[in-house]
Specification:
399 residues; mainly alpha; Cytochrome Bc1 Complex, Chain D, domain 2; 18 helices; 10 strands; disordered N terminus
Length: 399
């Protein structure tokens, strides 16, 4: 990807931006070592250890991203900060010294190397040598499941763990690797921002889904779109089969049995889960919905529109806690994703901070909440009036 291919408005914004003084840190701050007692529990509580794992633990995946894909070489020679932001990578402003962005060359890959040296690229961990070469590069959970508050500029600010990075074009990033066959690179480039296919490397089909949130998980029995297992199952699957971490994962139904020693995944799964369960759903942004309309929408949600039949409010807005999964035909969903996995059904998605992470449905086929309501109105023949649809949308935005 060339800098010249970037949106001119974005490039101009990046070059013109100055740092927010409240977000800066000392100029000599670099990558932090793992906290003392990370695995033993000494001197740190479980959420604190889990936060470190979520943000910085690569599960030993560096050999794949460095030695196999050679992305360290690509980043060092061809990925400027402007390019990185254009493909949805986020920058943690709290890791930067005062005035850094205002004075840095945002069109130079050398600046990206310096951001990595300072541990400022969310979800990317790198070892940078004294002469500013990237010795190794790996990724963490935060790459897809964190974003920033844009307090400095678009893509630069304080970390927000758990919200999905719907700007992230994972496929375009991976496709930068020089070792991929053209056909595989074409598949990756077809996904677009905010989507990922976690089965493509297993079954060869191309059917990406929307990156889900990793917050508001407390009380949700099964976390994947198709109900394969709880959040720990998904963390294990992704860490080993997608991030290519050095660990073990087995699922006889999917035909997967990966055993690696040392296992850098399994020992940290409990504390990673504890941190994720501690991430509460953020409140809706001030002024983002009409309270009176939302109250009318709640009444519709609970009764007239029958939404609460599956999205049960007392059960984290999902009937999966009752052991229920749904055939694609029950709700008018595309069946391809479900058919690729072992249950062949979909879980009712908990309604977590909906207004803050469009698009919707597992495949992103509903761009807005109104599109969601329109789909169910048509599919179930609800006969909602335009005003009732608007009221339902306002209620969904209030969750």
């Amino acid at each position: 990807m060339r800098v010249s291919s970037l949106c001119p408005a974005l490039a101009a914004l990046l070059v013109a931006c100055t740092d927010h003084p409240s977000l800066t840190t000392p100029a000599n701050q670099v990558v932090r070592p793992p906290p003392a007692g990370l695995l033993t529990g000494a001197r740190l509580d479980v959420p604190a250890r889990g936060q470190y794992i979520f943000r910085h633990w690569t599960f030993g995946d560096e050999p794949f991203w460095t030695d196999t894909l050679h992305l360290n070489e690509v980043v060092e020679t061809a990925v400027s900060p402007a390019t990185a932001l254009a493909v949805g990578l986020k920058v943690d402003a709290e890791r930067l010294p005062p005035g850094f962005l205002g004075s840095a060359d945002l069109t130079s890959p050398a600046t990206t190397v310096e951001l990595l040296r300072r541990d400022a690229v969310v979800g990317v961990e790198a070892v940078v040598t004294a002469d500013r070469h990237i010795k190794s590069l790996g990724i963490t959970c935060a790459l897809c499941h964190s974003t920033v508050d844009n307090a400095v500029t678009a893509g630069v600010g304080r970390r927000l763990d758990g919200l999905p990075n719907r700007d992230l074009n994972v496929g375009a990033i991976v496709a930068l690797s020089p070792v991929l066959p053209p056909a595989v690179r074409a598949v990756f480039n077809s996904w677009g921002p905010g989507k990922y296919d976690a089965e493509f490397n297993r079954d060869g089909l191309n059917n990406p889904v929307v990156i889900p949130p990793a917050l508001g998980l407390q009380g949700v029995a099964l976390e994947t779109y198709t109900g394969e297992g709880p959040v720990t199952y998904w963390n294990n699957y992704v860490a080993v089969t997608q991030m290519h971490g050095h660990g073990s994962f087995s699922d006889a139904v999917l035909g997967i049995n990966i055993q690696q020693t040392p296992d850098r995944v399994t020992p940290v799964l409990p504390v990673l889960r504890a941190y994720q369960l501690s991430l509460n759903t953020p409140p809706p942004r001030e002024g983002s919905f009409d309270p009176a309309a939302a109250e009318r929408g709640k009444q519709l949600f609970d009764a007239t529109a029958r939404c609460a039949t599956c999205h049960i409010p007392s059960l984290a807005f999902t009937d999966v806690n009752l052991g229920i999964l749904h055939e694609p035909s029950e709700t008018g969903m595309d069946p391809v994703r479900a058919m690729r996995l072992k249950n062949h059904k979909y879980r009712t998605t908990p309604l977590r901070a909906l207004g803050q992470h469009p698009p919707y449905f597992h495949d992103g086929s509903a761009a807005t909440l109104l599109d969601v309501v329109e789909h169910y109105d048509r599919f179930f023949g609800l006969g909602l009036s335009p005003q009732e649809k608007k009221d339902l949308v306002e209620y969904l935005k209030s969750l």
